[in-house]
Amino acid sequence: MRIPLGIRKLIGYWTNWYYPATGTCGHCDRNWRVAQEHLTLFLHGHSCFPLCEMCWNDLSIAERLPHYKSLYNRWVSMSEDHNGVPWPEVWKGMEKAVRDGL
User: Fold this and answer.
1) Which of 26, 39, 54, 61 shows the greatest Cβ crowding within 10 Å of its Cβ?
2) In the chain, pLDDT over 70 holds for what percent of residues?
3) Full-model pTM
4) How many CA atoms lie within 13 A of 89 on its CB side?
């Protein structure tokens, strides 16, 4: 069942208040306890989920990429590499996966 974005954002507001320490979708802000994450596989054995399935399906590639870039930038600020993979290579893998519809 597809939920309109405005309702998803409202759900996000309330669930984030109820579950404050859980991650959220980068677009609708729904908590991972109530939203199904869209798992994006990139490189070999690496994955991320900055968007829920509904938002992934609603957004174009150009609209998805800023959410991945935001997650990437948070990761870069926390460590020198991504499990031994240099950051530029990580971003290339993430961007390719998004553009390929993964």
Assistant:
1) 54
2) 100
3) 0.88
4) 10
What the block records as the tokens of 73 is: 């930038």
**How many domains are there within the chain?**
1
Instruction: Please name which of 72, 78, 73, 68 lies closest in space to residue 102, comparing C-alpha atoms.
Output: 68
**In 10 A of CB 22, how many CB atoms?**
12
Instruction: Determine the Cα–Cα distance for residues 83 and 33; give it in Å rounded to an integer.
Output: 26
**Tokens matching residue 101:** 């519809």
- Amino acid letter at 12? G
Q: What's the pLDDT at 37?
A: 96
Average pLDDT, integer, range 38-47 = 93
Query: CB count, 10 Å around CB of 31?
Result: 22
Which residues form the domain of 71? 5-99
> 């992934």: which residue's tokens?
56
Coil, helix or strand at residue 102: coil
